Amino acid sequence: MLRSKKSAYAKWADWVVLLLILVGLFSLLKLAYYAPPAAKSTPISLDMKYIPYYAWKSVFRMIMAYLLSIVFSIFYGYAAAKNKLNERILLPILDILQSTPILSFLPVFVFGLTAIMPQKLALEIAAILLIFTSQAWNMTFAWYQSLTTIPKELKEASNIFLLNPWMRFKKLELPFGFVSLVWNSIMSWSAGWFYLIAAEILTVGSKNFEMVGLGSYMEEATNQGNVRALIIGIITLIVIIVILDQFLWRPLLSWAKKFNLEMVSAGVETETASWFYPVLRQSKIILWFERTILKPLTVRLDKFYDKRRSKKKLVVHTQDEPVNKKVLIGIGIVLGLVLLFGAGHMIAFMSKITLGEYGYILEAAVATTLRVFAALALSLLWTIPVGVLIGSNKKAALVLQPLVQVAASVPATAFFPFLILFFIKLPFGVNIAAIVLMILGTQWYLLFNVIAGVATIPQDLRYTASMMRLKKWNYWKTLILPALFPFLITGSITASGGAWNASILAEYVTTHDKTYSTIGLGSIVAEANATSNYPLLFAATFVMIVFVTCINRFGWRRLYALAKEKYKME
Question: Tell me, what DSSP letter sits at residue 509?
Fold first, then answer.
C-alpha cells in the first residue's frame, strides 16, 4: 500500500512541477510587456581586426555558463541520486527543464529582465542562461546516471570501510563518474557553440537585441551573404576548439587515470594521449599549486566534515519536527494558492487562442515529434559504431577524436541558411532540411555518451570476452550493448531534448528577405516570436512542454529505471 502511495505521489509531482514552470514562464511573459524598447545595438563589424575581441567575448560567456553548469550538475545530480524523496521531486523538474524549449521563451526572458535591470546586463545574463541550458542537462543526467549505476559491491566496500559521505564522494563516486563527466563536459561545451548565434542575436517583432561576439559575427556574415567573413569566423572557431582540445580536454582525460578504479578500463589514458599533460605534471608551478593549495584544502575539508559530523551526533532532536512540519504545510498552502492564481490567469490568457488554432498546434506537435524520433534513429545508426571505435581503438581515437570535437563544435546554425537553398530544390526539401539540422545539433550527445560508455567498460570483462572467443555479434550482444545501455539512454534523453529545441531553428528559416517554413511546433514558436504573438507563443510552448514531459515520463524514465536495475556493472 505504501508503495502505491509513493508511485501516485511521483506521478503527481510531474504535473505540479509542470504547472509551476508554466506559471513562471507566464509571469515572465506578463513582465515582458513592460520591457523598454531595444537600445541601439553595437554594430557588428566584419573587419578581421575585431575577430580576437569577438572571440574572447564569446569564450568568456561559454566559460561562465560552463562553470555554472558543472556546479549545478554535481549538486543537483547528487541530491537526486542520494535521496528517494529528492529523486521524486528533482527528476521531474530536470525532465521538464531539459524539455522546455529555451529558444521559445528566451526573448520573453530578455524582455522581462530588461524591465527590471540595465539592458546590457540583461542580455549577458540571457546569453549565459541559453548556453547554460545547452550544457547543464546533459552533464546532470550523466552524473546522476553514474551515481545510480555504481556496482553494489563497491557500495558495500565503502560501507565496510565506514566512509562518511564526503570520503565516499571523493574516493568512490567522483572517480566512478569522472570519465563520463569529462566526456559529457566536452559534449556540453560543443553544444554551447551550437546555440551561440541564437544567444548573441535576438530579434522579436520590431525589437532587436544584439551583442558583440563570434556568434553575432557569423550571423552578420550570413545575413550579408559574405562567405569570406563566414569562413573566417568558422576558422577562428576551429582554432579555439583545437586549442581547448590540446590544452584542456586531452589533459583532463589523461588526468582521469588518477581517478580510475580497478574495474575501469586502463585504455582511457592511452586512447586519449596528451602531449601537454606530462608538461603540466612536471611544471614546478603546478606542483607548487598542488602541494601548497590543493592538498591543504582537501585536508581542511576532511577535518571540517568530521567536526560537523561529530557535532551532529551530539545534537539531540526534540519537539522541533512538528513545528517544521507545520511550516512546510504553510509554505505548501501558500505555494498552492499562488499556483492556482497564476494558473487562472494563464488559462484566461490561453483562451485567446481558438479551438481551430489548438487543432493546428496539436497537428504540428505530431509532425515535430516524428522529426525528433527520425533524427534520433538516424543518429543512432552511425554514433554507436563510431563511438565504440573511438572508445576502444587507440589509433582511431587519435585521428577521429579531434575531428569529432571540431565537427561537434561548429554551429550548424551559421551555415544552415546556405544549406536550405540546396535542400529546397529536393522533394519535401524543408522537411529534410529540418531533420538534418536536428541531427547536426543532437547526434553529438549520443556519440560522446557512447565513447564515455566504452571507456568505462571494465578491463576484466574485455579479457573474459576475449578468452571466450565470442564472435563479433555475440561480443556486441553480450558485452558492448548491455554496457552502453545506460549511456545510450542518457544520450537519447538529452539528444531528444536538444532536437525539440533545434526544431525552432530548423522548421522556420529566414535567409536574406525570404522565409522557409514547414508545419511543426518549432515553426509556430519561431513565427509567433517574429510577429510578437504572445498568446500563440505561450500556447505552442505549453503544448511542446506537455508532449515532451509525457514522452519522458512514460518512455525515457522507464528505460532509465531498467538501466539502473538490469544493466549495472555488477
Answer: E
Residues 520/503, Cβ–Cβ less than 8 Å: yes
Quickly tell me which residue has 579555439 as its cell.
240
DSSP SS3 for 137: helix
Running DSSP on this structure, what letter comes out for residue 256? G
Confidence of residue 370 (pLDDT cuts 50, 70, 90): very high
Q: How many CB atoms lie within 10 A of CB 305?
A: 16
Distance CA 35, CA 434 (A): 32
Helix (H, G, I), strand (E, B) or coil at 514: strand
Distance of CA 91 to the CA centre of its chain: 14
- The whole model's pTM is what? 0.74
Give 207's DSSP letter: E
Task: Please report, as a single letter, which amino acid is at residue 201.
Answer: I
pLDDT value at residue 266? 46
Ranked by mean pLDDT, the top range of 76-80, 110-114, 259-263, 311-315 is 76-80
With the C-alpha atoms ordered 295, 301, 304, 309, is the resulting torsion angle positive or negative? negative
Q: Is 428 left (phi over 0), alpha (psi -120 to 50) or beta?
A: left
Nearest C-alpha neighbor of 448 from the set 266, 188, 99, 135: 188
pLDDT reading at 315 higher than 60 = no
Predicted pLDDT of residue 265: 43
Q: What angle do CA 267, 273, 275 make, to 5 degrees?
A: 160
CA-based nearest residue to 201, from 183, 187, 215? 215
CA-based radius of gyration for the chain: 25
Give the containing element (helix H, strand E) for 435: helix 429-455
The amino acid occupying position 170 is: K
Q: What is the DSSP letter of 205?
A: T
- Between 179 and 43, the more confident residue is 179
Written in H, E and C, the secondary structure of 59-73 is HHHHHHHHHHHHHHH
Torsion of the alpha carbons at 377, 378, 383 and 386, rounded to the nearest 10: 140
The amino acid at residue 299 is V
What single-letter amino acid sits at 180?
A: S
CA 517 to chain centre: 26
Given phi > 0 = left and psi -120 to 50 = alpha, else beta, which region is 512?
left
Instruction: Write the CB contacts of 270 (distance below 8 Å, at least 6 apart in sequence).
Output: 394
